[in-house]
């Protein structure tokens, strides 16, 4: 009498089970259809038993060896990411500081211009008062041309 074949995951029991820091993620080594497999997978609990879930991957021995051979490169990349993130944080802080300095300088220039405008207005007002006093002054035979509303004309140089 034959019994039903067990599910594929239960064909062989893992020879090695390592947890990856959290209870649900595990690395297992097993043999399936005469192939050695390294599984990196999420597990779930059902009826008190931990079973492999669909989230994860299975690597053949060759794929695993390629991955292991790249560990130094991967480690260096992780360090570079940290360095780049730290650089980006520092650069962002510097950019914010430079922007704040620029805004402060613009505010100071605006205040200085406002003070200059106020001073200029005071000088102009004083000059206007002086001009009113000087209106009676005789300016002789000087002729003035009203150009405030005249259209712009090209001037021709005369000798």
UniProtKB/TrEMBL annotation:
Residues 128-148 have a biased composition (Acidic residues). Residues 23-68 form the Transcriptional coactivator p15 (PC4) C-terminal domain. This is Transcriptional coactivator p15 (PC4) C-terminal domain-containing protein. Gene3D superfamilies: Transcriptional Coactivator Pc4, Chain A. It is found in: Nucleus. It comes from Pichia membranifaciens NRRL Y-2026. Keywords: DNA-binding, Nucleus, Transcription, Transcription regulation. Residues 95-159 are annotated as: Disordered.
């Amino acid at each position: 009498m034959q019994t039903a074949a067990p599910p594929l995951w239960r064909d062989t029991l893992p020879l090695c089970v390592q947890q990856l820091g959290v209870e649900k993620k595990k690395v297992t080594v097993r043999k399936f259809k005469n192939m050695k497999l390294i599984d990196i997978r999420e597990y779930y609990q059902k009826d008190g038993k931990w079973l492999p879930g669909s989230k994860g991957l299975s690597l053949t021995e060759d794929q695993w060896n390629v991955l292991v051979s790249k560990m130094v490169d991967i480690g260096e990349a992780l360090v570079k990411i940290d360095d780049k993130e730290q650089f980006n944080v520092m650069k962002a802080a510097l950019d914010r500081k430079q922007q704040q300095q620029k805004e402060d300088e613009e505010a100071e220039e605006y205040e200085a211009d406002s003070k200059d405008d106020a001073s200029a207005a005071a000088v102009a007002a004083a000059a206007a008062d002086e001009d009113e006093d000087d209106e009676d002054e005789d300016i002789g035979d000087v002729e003035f041309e009203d150009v405030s509303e005249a259209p712009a004309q090209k001037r021709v140089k005369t000798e």
